[in-house]
C-alpha cells in the first residue's frame, strides 16, 4: 500500500509540473511580463523567471537563458553582447590575461601551511596589510575576501540608508552596482566623458541629486580618472564620501603622478587572478584616516566587538581574507613597480605597431601610460565582432568592453526597469565598439608585434598574417621557469 501511495504521489508531482509548464508557455505566448512572479521567486532565493508553481520549478528546463533574454525590452535585446568568438585550430595561444607570481609566493604558502598560519587571524594578513599601508602611504589597510567585498565594507562604513544615492560609473564591472544595492542604497549611473572610459567631474555633477551621499570612481582598465583631483575637491565641499575602486588600477598613477587610491576616503582593490598582483581571489580596503580602522575591522568580521567576543552591535558580512591567500600575495607587493613598468612598455609597443591604422582607435593615452589592459575601438559593433573573430582564428583572445550597468538585465528582473529610459551615449557606444587585447607580464615585443600584425591584416586585407611562433600553453612554460628559478 505504501509503495502504491508513493507512486501515486510521484505521478501527481509530474502532473503538477506539466500544468505549471503549460501555464508558463501560455503566459509567454500572451506576452505576460511575469514581474510579480519574478519578485516572488527572487524572494525565495531561486532563479529569476515566471514560475506558477515555485516548489516544482526546474530552472534548467523551464527557464533557460534564451527565454530570459527573450523577455527583455527591445532596447536591451538589440544591444546585448554577441557570443564569444571560437578559437582557431591552434587554440587560444594568447590569453587576454595571465596570473603572474614567483617562487616566493609558493614558498610563503608552504611556510603558512607548515606553521598552521592559514586563517584570517594568522600573521600573513597583517603582514600584507602592512605592505599595502607602506605602498599607498595610508594608516589603515585590511585584506578582504574579494574586491567586491572590500567595496561593500567601504560602503557600509559610509552609513548609507535606503534614501541615499551613490554616483557610480555606468561603464564598469557589475560588482560596483551590486555592492551599492546590497547595502540598501541606490546607484545613480553616470556617463563617460567624451573620449574616455571614465566619467569626469561634469558627468558626476550632471547626475547629482539632493540624496547623493557618496561617489565611486573606478579608474576603468587602469586609466586614471583625469579629473580625480578636482572630483576629490568637489566631494569634500559637498560632504560626499569618495571611494576609489582600484580593482583594475593598482599601481596606476594619476596625471599629477600620485597613486590612484590615495585621493578618496577609502580605496578598494582586487587580488583576483587576472590582476597585476594576485592571491587567486581576495582584495583589500584601505582608508586615509586612522579613525576608520576599528569600524572597518568590525565590518569585515561579522560586526565583532573586540571587548565582547560574541556581542554584535551591527549587521556585517564575513569579508576577511584567509592566511593562505595573504601569504601568496605578500611577496608580490614589492614586484608591483616592475609589473607596472612592463605594462607601460606594452602600451608603448601597442601604440607603435597600431599607429596610423585607419578604422581603429587605441585606448586614451595618459601621462603615466600603463593600463591594466590595452583597449581598442572600431567603427561599429559588426566590425568589432568580426575583428574579434579574426583574432580568435589566429590564436588571440580578446574581451568585449563592459556592458553599461544601466542596461543590465538585472534591472528588468529586479523591478528597476525604469533605468532603461536613461541614455548615456558615450558608455553605450564604448560597449558596442570596444574590446581589449592581451595584456600580461609574460608578453614581449615579438608577441605584441604578432598580435598587432593580425589586427592590421583584418583592416589591410593585402597584408599576410605572420607565422604564429608561440604554442598553446607557452605562458605556463614561462610561469614554470619563475617557479623553479
UniProtKB/TrEMBL annotation:
GO terms for MF: pyridoxal phosphate binding; transaminase activity
Domain of life: Eukaryota
Source taxonomy: Eukaryota, Sar, Alveolata, Dinophyceae, Noctilucales
Signal peptide: none
Pfam families from the UniProt entry: DegT_DnrJ_EryC1
Any GO BP annotation: polysaccharide biosynthetic process
Transmembrane segments: 6-25
Record keywords: Membrane, Transmembrane, Transmembrane helix
UniProt protein name: Uncharacterized protein
SUPFAM superfamilies given in the database record: PLP-dependent transferases
Amino acid at each position: 500500500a505504501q509503495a502504491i501511495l508513493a507512486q501515486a504521489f510521484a505521478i501527481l508531482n509530474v502532473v503538477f509540473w506539466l500544468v505549471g509548464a503549460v501555464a508558463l508557455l501560455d503566459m509567454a505566448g500572451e506576452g505576460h511580463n511575469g514581474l510579480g512572479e519574478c519578485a516572488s521567486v527572487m524572494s525565495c532565493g531561486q532563479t529569476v523567471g515566471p514560475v506558477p508553481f515555485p516548489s516544482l520549478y526546474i530552472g534548467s528546463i523551464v527557464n533557460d537563458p534564451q527565454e530570459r533574454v527573450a523577455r527583455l525590452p527591445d532596447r536591451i535585446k538589440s544591444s546585448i553582447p554577441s557570443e564569444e568568438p571560437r578559437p582557431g585550430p591552434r587554440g587560444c595561444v594568447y590569453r587576454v590575461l595571465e596570473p603572474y607570481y614567483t617562487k616566493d609566493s609558493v614558498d610563503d604558502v608552504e611556510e603558512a601551511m607548515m606553521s598552521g598560519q592559514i586563517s584570517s587571524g594568522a600573521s600573513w594578513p597583517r603582514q600584507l596589510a602592512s605592505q599595502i599601508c607602506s605602498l599607498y602611504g595610508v594608516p589603515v589597510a585590511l585584506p578582504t575576501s574579494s574586491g567586491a567585498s572590500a567595496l561593500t565594507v567601504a560602503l557600509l562604513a559610509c552609513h548609507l540608508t535606503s534614501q541615499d544615492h551613490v554616483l557610480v560609473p555606468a561603464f564598469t564591472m557589475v560588482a560596483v552596482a551590486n555592492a551599492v544595492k546590497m547595502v540598501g542604497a541606490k546607484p545613480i549611473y553616470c556617463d563617460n566623458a567624451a573620449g574616455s572610459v571614465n566619467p569626469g567631474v561634469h558627468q558626476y555633477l550632471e547626475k547629482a541629486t539632493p540624496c547623493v551621499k557618496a561617489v565611486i570612481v573606478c579608474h576603468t582598465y587602469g586609466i586614471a580618472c583625469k579629473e580625480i583631483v578636482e572630483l576629490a575637491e568637489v566631494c569634500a565641499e559637498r560632504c560626499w564620501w569618495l571611494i576609489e575602486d582600484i580593482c583594475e588600477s593598482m599601481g596606476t598613477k594619476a596625471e599629477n603622478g600620485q597613486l590612484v587610491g590615495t585621493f578618496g576616503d577609502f580605496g578598494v582593490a582586487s587580488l583576483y587572478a587576472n590582476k597585476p598582483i594576485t592571491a587567486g581571489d581576495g582584495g583589500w580596503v584601505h582608508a586615509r584616516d586612522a579613525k576608520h580602522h576599528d569600524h572597518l575591522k568590525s565590518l569585515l568580521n561579522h560586526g565583532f566587538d573586540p571587548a565582547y567576543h560574541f556581542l554584535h552591535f551591527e549587521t556585517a558580512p564575513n569579508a576577511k581574507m584567509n592566511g593562505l591567500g595573504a601569504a601568496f600575495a605578500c611577496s608580490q607587493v614589492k614586484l608591483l613597480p616592475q609589473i607596472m613598468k612592463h605594462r607601460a612598455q606594452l602600451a608603448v609597443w601597442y601604440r607603435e605597431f597600431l599607429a596610423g591604422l585607419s578604422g581603429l582607435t587605441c585606448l586614451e593615452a595618459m601621462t603615466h601610460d600603463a593600463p591594466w589592459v590595452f583597449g581598442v575601438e572600431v567603427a561599429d559593433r559588426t566590425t568589432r565582432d568580426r575583428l574579434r573573430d579574426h583574432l580568435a582564428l589566429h590564436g588571440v583572445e580578446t574581451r568585449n568592453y563592459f556592458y553599461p550597468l544601466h542596461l543590465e538585465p538585472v534591472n528588468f528582473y529586479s523591478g528597476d526597469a525604469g533605468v532603461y529610459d536613461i541614455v548615456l551615449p558615450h558608455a553605450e557606444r564604448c560597449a558596442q565598439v570596444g574590446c581589449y587585447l592581451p595584456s600580461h607580464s609574460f608578453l614581449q615585443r615579438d608577441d605584441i608585434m604578432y598580435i598587432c600584425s593580425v589586427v592590421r591584416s583584418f583592416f589591410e586585407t593585402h597584408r599576410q598574417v605572420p607565422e604564429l611562433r608561440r604554442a598553446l600553453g607557452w605562458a605556463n612554460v614561462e610561469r614554470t621557469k619563475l617557479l623553479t628559478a
